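Let us work through a complete example step by step.
Step 1: write down the sequence.
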Amino acid sequence: MNKKTLILAIVATTTVGAASAQNSMTYGSHTYEVKGEMFTEADNNYYGPRKTPTAWVTFSNIPSDYEEFEAVYNGLLGKSIQGTAAMIPMAIELYARDASVGERCFNLLCNSSTTVSGILRILKTKLVPSQYGPANDPYIQRYMAAALLKGAQASNAYTPTEPYTVEMCSSANRPQGSMNGTVYYVYILAKGWDTEQRQVEILETSNGLYKVFNCPSCYVQCKNIQGKWGGLK
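Step 2: predict the structure and record it as tokens.
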């Protein structure tokens, strides 16, 4: 049992792709909140590129450990499409801090071991310096998780606004049925890449929680940093 005091303040019922503005959670001194709507009726007839966020997840800190990540996933963020997508940068950052913790986070967050192995195969070469990729190698991008957060860009050394915010909208692809459930296509809007829309595929499961089905555009090479990265809380 984790020694931290866990306080849940979850208001309203999350529907598919939508969350009340009061949908929030506190874990110790860390706060998490889901805002906006991921899908609207207008999406049914819209196929153009998306550049304006319609859903947000804000949080004061990266989860401190796996226990907090798990509690936040089960208690709030895993109950919505946007909440699940917003946990991707959290899991990336936790992997960079401790690979074993990050692996556990991805195993919880993703729908299959195949998805997890594909993510970790890239992250272990991009986040952790080694004899093959020393810290001064521009391929090593320790700041990759920060690149997915609002306000962070290469020119400001990937310093995000606070509270940390993941901005999202639905992609131009309609939801698709699969043998495991419905897959929703989401853009995380981030300025770390020339193409600011980072597509994420989120799977709706039968137990009321969502899983990451695929997210390769979230861990491909982003723009190299200008200056020194200050880290994330």
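Step 3: interpret the result. Residues 1-21 have pLDDT under 50 and may be disordered.
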